[in-house]
Write a structure and sequence with these properties.
EC 1.1.1.31 (chains A, B, C, D), six-stranded parallel sheet, 9 strands, elongated, disordered N terminus, three-stranded mixed sheet, 6PGDH_NADP-bd (chains A, B, C, D), 50% helix, homotetramer, Rossmann fold, 6-PGluconate_DH-like_C_sf (chains A, B, C, D)
Chain lengths: 329, 329, 329, 329
């Protein structure tokens, strides 16, 4: 079987970079982004700001929680008491907020981003929200002479800390290229996905498939093991057959199959059940608005929702394997 | 992105071989199997017999359809008028039948395999059936001094014709090694899965996961495309992210994404909806008997069943993509 | 078996009235509602306005479609060119609009209802929308000195024409009693459901259960009939056993079982697939926002969505029976 | 609202009887059934035998558990040491066994029922099993000059004790009439359902619908209550609207809604989760064999299976309401 070390996301990323998916950072980009505003300093935003600062950027930060602002101010950021203060004069503003309503509100309310944004600034929303948020805000930003992009990320808090996030961009392609050097301070890869909202569509579609696959692998492994198969033999067959998928190869949900994955560490860390449930909820909402059927996506959504109700919301989504066995973790 | 040619199942098979999963055929194995009985000469059995004969084996064939016997007799096989005639004196007997009841009947009825099997013979059932069939027949074979193995295959009619099937074996490991040279006349890979029934369990578990993944990819691609994404961009993002799976990378269900797959050829050929529905029905049945929950497997089963009812039973399972759009093919 | 005529909703309504659920209309209520504004003149709104006029009410009507206004003006209503004109000086305003965004917009935009509503007026929204719409608008109405109620209806276009709708009211109970005489001009029953939004919650919960039951009856009848049972025998067993439900007794989806139901008339009329899909979409959205699991509701939603995609959106929801058979209607 | 006492199954039964569904017991039937064999003396069989004896019948009983035989022998039955002994000379034989394989085995094995059955005897299998069991055994019984009927029951252990079971009969109609007086010693109603297997089909179809409805009511009540509705108001709306069903009216799953139902008594007694899961498993199996789609039935099956895995197997099926809340009972 091919080795664990030579396969997977890391290798792929390198290959993609060499094929030109990733533009090398230009040396002069710091001049283009002399002040960066950052709003939303939670588990993702905090390490993203720190990585921007490591690369030499000046970052003005704001959050409704004063402690979060103070924490980053100590680390060298400019702590701000309002959105306006963080946005004022910034060449780029990044937002990392919990849900659609927060993004819409932060942009459009009195004292919001759109009121004080500088002409020519780039606005990147990295929150995972409804794609229509991007389609609503982009023209409003344009009216102010600014450029809005949706740029949700994958990679989780670990990727945010390591600076290896993938940014999926929706909006104008040249604008995507302009902000790429900035985003590569926080991530390892920038993928241009199409017009406004398409970064979000890509993220939602991928995460829906992840949610489905993880349940599929959990059910297949559970079925085979309960019927008497050796878990490692079963995993190796799946990984070399038509059932092969990331959830089986790189993130197998059965404890002890792979080192360094949440399933081998009590399902701690990783990608939480509550987060995949949220993403599947967005997929559900978007599909419903457009009259699209997602029968498996809908059922996966309900299953993670049940796990959340069963107090597994902060466990890694691979805990689905234990959920099928009626076990607590 | 890594190239289409250098990845996937072929490469994997080679790697596995080099790591010792596949034993090289011994030169003298033809002496061990001087007569082979083969029962069940349908779309799979027919080319499997032909491949056995190409490698120099004498094969005595039987099917309830006389035409199927005559066809292979013309090609050089020994046509038989009964199971007993095909089995009599054979060193190995291969069965390739539609369903559990046919296998049980062919083995245990008056005039069946068990009545005329030679002491020391190997009996390999390559049908995809309930694992309990193997667990029922193995001890009965043992009483007769013969050795029974379950050895279902993956690869479909194309693999059967090309001689590239994968055999998944359940039963004694040394018996599996003994018949491996014989099976490699019809396939490219033999995987030992464990005790009796485990070959079937492996096949059923893998195919359940395949059935789920294909629906997941179909829903994710359909969602993204309908919301405005470019199909190839979306596919490339899935294939380099956590949604990555065989159904997306090697067998994408959207027409025009990949060459030489059924979705790019009107969903003709490939792995039929009726067959995946049958396999998911076995998974459902086995899970129910053992009190195992397979919520996603059950829903996938029902979706392929609906497609079959919609007269898509003989289309490749990737037709799920079109089904979600309410289109006929 | 108990007779078709003496059972069901009509009888129940009478019983409920006699137990005091329905207040008798006071003779002087026309004085309390000397001008009524009505906004939204579609398939539901049009006959509702006509029924108000039959009972002697003066109704000022508005719709974005001028033809709809003209049609009712011919029938005796006061045609208006704007929301403000219809609302100005009205003692009560009824809205019957397609979706949440239309209701929110019609109330809160410049020139909307809240701008020109008279102090002391009653505002009843009969649209089927997200319960949060009611919870958002009620306090805004209060600021203007008006009283807002959510009052979605059941009974469909037939009930709207016959004046037999059921109104489910959310808001203050005394306000519900005040508008009851007015609503009974358009309906046969007014049910007080609780605080703001609860009328909508009741409707959504009931329709989710209806959507699930209709699929359940369709599957049970289809299973029994395909396995050889006489359809009428099967129906009578279900109707006198634990499977008994409205969808089986009063609205059986198998053609020829009951007279005067859509299934016996080519699934024409009745409660459209597109409408139940819309209601299940609201249930899904509300459940997701509140972290509530509705696995069967979610699957029912997807099944009606698939029927809509299959161009069955304007057929009665009982067409689920035919859908399971893969037949077009 | 119509009163709890005057509605429902009891009333229905009376009405049905008056319309001739139930034949009055003839006075001389005890002569026709001078010895009755009864095999399978579990929670159902035990009280059924006692009710037969109360009506003056001589019953010869057998079970693989000797204690069960001894217990009934003390109560006046003829305890037997073998199937043959119980069947020998009996005018009628009733079987009440756990699953298809037990019924098939008890009839066809060496020393089984078919070997020692008396010419002219009636054989009624009251087990809930696959309809094909009846279709297999009926012709074998005929060869022996006996008459086989499938006669599964509804009513559970409470109905078995009270002698109010409903028997659903498949087989020849005149044979059904012949055994009716005997069955009415153990039950309150006999419904002729059609040819062999149809009694089982009726039971399976009804219970599938029950399983679906109970989940639907549980989800609808849970949704409405969590969103703020008063439970009794919500129940009364459902019960007078299109969501009305037995599971809401007669057996509401929310504690405290109805007296004397398991949900108001810690979900003890009633119809166990393990039993509805078993029945849905048979529905699934039968549907799969015949290529019938039951998407909602399949999902309901998986949900009860999950509850069973969660150690709720011996709770009443209404515990679904608690399951949705992630609570243990």
């Amino acid at each position: 079987m091919f080795s664990l070390k030579s396969r997977g996301v890391v290798q792929v990323t390198v290959n993609m970079a060499s094929k030109g998916f990733i533009q090398n950072a230009t040396l002069d980009f710091q001049r283009s982004f002399s002040k960066i505003g950052f709003i939303g300093l939670g588990n993702m935003g905090n390490p993203m700001v720190k990585n921007l600062m490591k690369k030499g950027h000046k970052v003005a930060v704001y959050d409704i929680k004063k402690d979060s602002v103070a924490d980053l101010a100590k680390a060298g950021a400019t702590g701000c008491g309002s959105v306006a203060e963080a946005v004022d004069g910034a060449d780029a503003v990044v937002t990392m907020l919990p849900a659609s309503k927060h993004v819409l509100d932060t942009y459009t309310r009195k004292g919001g981003i759109l009121e004080s944004v500088k002409k020519g600034a780039y606005l990147v929303d990295s929150s995972t929200v409804d794609p229509s948020v991007s389609q609503t805000l982009a023209p409003l930003a344009k009216e102010k002479g600014a450029t809005y992009l949706d740029g949700p990320v994958s990679g989780g808090t670990i990727g945010a800390e390591a600076g290896t996030l993938t940014f999926m961009i929706g909006g104008e392609e040249d604008a995507s290229k302009k902000v790429e050097p900035l985003l590569l301070c926080m991530g390892g890869r920038v993928v241009y996905c199409g017009s406004h909202g398409m970064g979000l569509v890509a993220k939602i579609a991928n995460n829906m498939l992840l949610g489905i696959s993880m349940l599929g692998v959990s059910e297949a492994m559970n079925l085979g093991i309960k019927l008497g198969m050796d878990p490692k033999t079963l995993m190796s067959i799946l990984n070399t057959s038509t059932g092969r998928c990331w959830s089986s190869e790189m993130y197998n949900p059965v404890p002890g199959m792979l080192p360094n994955v949440p399933s081998s560490n009590g399902y701690k860390g990783g990608f939480g059940v509550a987060l995949i449930a949220k993403d599947l909820g967005i997929a559900q909402s978007v599909a419903t608005q457009s009259g699209i059927a997602i029968p498996m996506g809908a059922q996966a959504h309900q299953m993670y929702r049940m796990m959340e109700i069963k107090k597994l919301g902060d466990k890694d989504l691979a805990v689905a394997y234990k959920y099928l066995q009626g076990e607590s973790v």
